[in-house]
Amino acid sequence: MADTHIRASADALLRAPASARGPRDPAAIIRWTLLAMGAIVMVMPIVYMLSASFKYPYEMYNLNIIPKEPTAENYAYVLSDGRFYRWFANSFFVATCTTVSAVFFDALVGYALCKFRFRGRLIVFIAILSTLMIPTEMLVIPWYLMSRSFGWLDTYWGIMFPGMMTAFGTFLMKQFFETVPDDFLEAARIDGLNEFQIWWSVALPMVTPALSALAIFIFLGNWTAFIWPLIVTNSQELYTLPVGLTTFSVEQTVDWELIMTGAALATIPTLIVFLIFQRYIIRGIAMAGLKG
Amino acid sequence: MATVSIQNLVKAYGKTEVLHGINLDVADGEFVVFVGPSGCGKSTTLRMIAGLEEVTSGEILIGERVVNHLEPKDRDIAMVFQNYAIYPHMTVRKNIGFGLRTSKLPKADKQKRIDEVAAILSMTDYLDRKPAQLSGGQRQRVAIGRAMVRDPAVFLFDEPLSNLDAQLRTQMRLEIKKLHQRVGTTIIFVTHDQVEAMTMADRIVIMKDGHIQQVGTPAEVFHKPANVFVAQFIGAPSMNMLDGVYAGGVITTAGRRVAVALPLPDGAAVTVGIRPDDLRVSDGAALFEGTVSVLEPLGAETLAHIDIGGRDVIARADGRAPPPVGARVHLSADTANMHFFAPDGEALR
Q1: Strands B77-80 and B154-158
Q2: What is the pLDDT of residue B26?
Q3: How confident is the model at residue A253 (pLDDT cuts 50, 70, 90)?
Q4: Nearest to A190 among B77, B87, B89 (CB)
Q5: Which residue has the higher pLDDT, B137 or A124?
Q6: Best CATH choice for the domain A77-288 from the list 1.10.3720.10, 3.40.50.2300, 1.10.10.10, 3.40.50.620
């Protein structure tokens, strides 16, 4: 029905005279100009990163997109540095563990807050939500003090623990569980499942788009995380990729071409994740009414 | 199979009481339908029987056991919900077999049971499909199959036909009735549709505002309604109600006199109820006279709205040759088919 409607609208648009199609419509011109500007702002750093990764150092501060003498030496250098693989693996390990944990706990807590009626439910929810209003830069101090007290400094656990459960994810999942009718849960209750089984076998599969979107957000967030891993780690063996890339800058010089090359390589997994799950990301964002 | 007994059942949410001490005994293998308008407490009662709502006071017995504090899974019941509640991520086979997940039956026996149920419901060819690939009626069958597969003592149906279109509803009504005749399990069925109640039930429980108004067979509640509410709720179109005054064995209503002996003092107000089927458009001796204001053709018959001195009554007229709008007509009715209600709404005979 919707497809037919869209097709009919498209046909009508194609049949319309050129003047009515939009390009000369002032509102459309403004709309397209703003979109183009937004796209340039978003895309330019990525284009510049890719461009710089193929440049020699002398060309770094030229803003030309196409290098005069393109070179793959930067890639060869970075990929021949054994540390790069270690940092890549660290990032992958940290992002994967954090994502699995956060998705599990966010969905569990979101479900409990959504589907159970208990004293203090609203207070707990507001308390979780309120942490969303505190910037990471503020949170690193208590995180650091905590890590020091528990001996978590310079450990994988130290890097991961702040992200093992997220307020945003809890809120997102709670909102999604609202869309699961209670009848499904009650039917499962009558069929003899316990509450955990109901959550796992019935409720969770019904919010798969949200789970996928959340998993991608969390994975990307942890893959690109910089400040906390920088603070909590000292040993290079524990660096994540964004932290490791900073070692290409020393006191007097910054090897931007190498940093850009590392950054370009670091975007590959995120691109793969996005390309595989983009359907879920877009549906998840649409369903949650969120902006990125 | 089992009996269900409800004794002085009360449900309150905080200080608001929504069920006011209802009593009911459902016999083993009986098909009982709870019917009433929205908010009358019928679904709440069903959910309390299922164990999905806590009992404020009173007792529910399934078989010989008081089940007030038993978990839903321990009550030996199965429930079919209004929106089917079949899991979209599972195939029909998995949905039907879901109720057996916690069963200790061997896997082969479970599969056999699923196949049997699917065959009964004519769903064998759809076992590998997902719910999204099924029609509304097929989905409803899957929901019923999931309930059947557990072979429960009592089936609970919570408005299961509400989401179906009229034609499918009629078909499923018949199928559920046949199913009951075949399996003989006790069924408690909730609906707001009095036609569903009339056509399916062994006994109907009519509820209003958290009270049971009447319990009886479809014929009893139709022909001998306990009060004005039941008289108007059961039957479509509703019973015509005419206010009158009783004196000396005669009721004067709408300017006409009806001779009938009632246990009322002279001068008492009385309501006369006449079903549209019992009010005939006639050429002969007339009880009322009036003008046809609106016609509702239904094919085989026509509902004629007739103005009798400022009051609108409905009579069934011949579908082929109904009186025209504006025509002056005579209406006759047999006193034996009339219903009489006291001022408090209770039936007088």
Answers
A1: parallel
A2: 97
A3: confident
A4: B77
A5: A124
A6: 1.10.3720.10
B344 CB neighbour count, 10 Å cutoff: 7
CB contact under 8 A, B89 and A187: no
Among B52, B73, B88, the residue with its CB nearest the CB of A191 is B73
DSSP B233: H
Question: In this structure, which amino acid lies at residue A223?
Answer: W
Alpha-carbon Rg for chain A in angstroms: 24
Instruction: Mark yes or no for CB contact A192/B98 under 8 Å.
Output: no
Asked if the structure places residue B298 within a domain, the reply is yes
Query: Which residues does A contribute to its contact with B (CB < 8 Å)?
Result: 181, 183-184, 186-193, 202, 205-206, 208
- Nearest by CB to A189, from B73, B82, B101: name it: B73
Of all residues in chain B, the one with the smallest CA distance to A185 is: B85
CA distances from B300 to A183, B141, B319, B322 (A): 41, 32, 5, 11
B-chain residue closest to A194, CA distance: B73
- Answer whether residue B222 is part of any domain: yes
Q: Which of B308, B309, B327 is nearest to B317 (CA)?
A: B327
> CA of B231, closest CA in chain A: separation in Å?
33
**Domain(s) of CATH 1.10.3720.10: residues in chain A:** 77-288
- For residue B67, the cross-strand partners are none
Per-residue confidence (pLDDT) for residue A277, from 0 to 100:
73
Two tokens, residue B119: 């065959």
pLDDT digits (tens, 9 = 90+) for A186-231: 999 998 899 999 999 999 999 988 898 899 889 989 999 999 999 9
